[in-house]
Amino acid sequence: MLTDLKVKVGPQVYRYHEGAIDYVPEVLKEYKVKRLLLVHGTVSWEKAKPKLLFLEDAHLEIFYHCYTGECSYYGAGLIADLVEELAIDFILGVGGGKLADLVGYAAHVVNRPFGLIPTLASNCAPWTPLSVMYKESGESEGKSEHYLRQAAFLITDPTLVIDAPVSYFIAGLADTLAKWIESEAILAQPHLKNEPFLQMAGYTAKLCETAILTQSKQAIEDMKRQEVTDAFCHLSEIVIAVAGMVGGLGDKYARNAAAHAMHDAISKYLPESHRFLHGEKVAYGMFYQLALEEKWTWARRRRHTDFTFFTIDDGISCRTGDGKCGSSHDRHCRFTNDLHGGIFSWRIHAGGTFDCCGDCRTGSFARKSATRSSDCCCRSCWVARELFVSVPFLYQYLLRKVYG
Fold first, then answer.
1. Sign of CA dihedral 250, 256, 257, 259
2. pTM
3. Span 144-171, pLDDT tens digits
4. Is 6 a domain residue?
5. Do 258 and 235 meet the contact criterion of CB atoms below 8 Å apart?
6. Would you say 288 and 260 are in contact if contact means Cβ atoms under 8 Å apart?
7. Residues 23 and 15: beta-carbon distance below 8 Å
8. % helix / strand / coil in the chain, to the nearest 5?
9. Is there a single domain that holds both residue 128 and residue 94?
10. Are residues 240 and 113 in the same domain?
11. In angstroms, rounded to a whole number, what is the distance separating the alpha carbons of residues 232 and 161?
12. How many domains is the chain built from?
């Protein structure tokens, strides 16, 4: 029996359908909200406003705050100051994943309930009671804040979610597929196989994998045509909500493994990577993890399924490994080319030192072999060292193994 499992299933109220946002006032009434702080972004806010009819409610005093674009301790401090200054009793976030993370963490800091209206299907941030922290520069802090507070509600409308860049949705699908790849690696351990909540987490992760591998191509095409179909609704719901239940049911036993560790190292140590989406970097990390586990057959078996939505069709795993796959103008193919020949090569040749435990300041990763934890007590620095030294070579090797 596990004594350290914390089950935090998800928001107290969840609705996702056309017209669902009209239900928000009912939840606010349940919380007896009088003074509401609404945290928003820029582009997504302009698209969302016409659907937020409750903003005209005369019984609510609403104050607005445009966040900085990052989930940072600085940004959380700004919200905390406003909450105290304006005697706010409820925080509402309208926007994407970083905004959702910021609102959740700020609400935890100031001990206030919060709700979320996601405008993108790019990750499960609106569902999960944790926040991935960044600096205002976009550099990762290399840590997440976990808290016990769940959102009072997650309510949104597919007609709002579909009005977003397709690249965000593709990144969300890739990030969600990682739930299965990473949780499977953890849950396969013999002493975890008979734990009921971990079994449910595993079933949920498998549901995510099956849906993505069978419906994603259709959902992406529907989004490109701006058609709110069952395929788009189901897949976007899996990204926003169902994926979040994997960690909600399984806690640390069904969360991050190597794929997200790759993302974290890229985001923390490579400023050039900040222009790429979370899911794009996680997708690259999935190949890294598959290689570590030597699961070549997993990728081979899925070459003819909708797995191609981020491997061939969008260029993230360009066959040649040099970005010349016939879609050189594609965002994802440029991502592959940058990682393979640009960002990582530059770091290896230039070397660098990091602030951590102080034992890893070797001057250049190219001149020092990557020896697990024997020469460094800081796990994240070991991951980074492995990452910088091995990825370009690993990437070419993996492509040969998967595609022959």
1. positive
2. 0.76
3. 999 999 999 999 999 999 999 998 999 8
4. no
5. no
6. no
7. yes
8. 55, 10, 35
9. yes
10. no
11. 10
12. 2
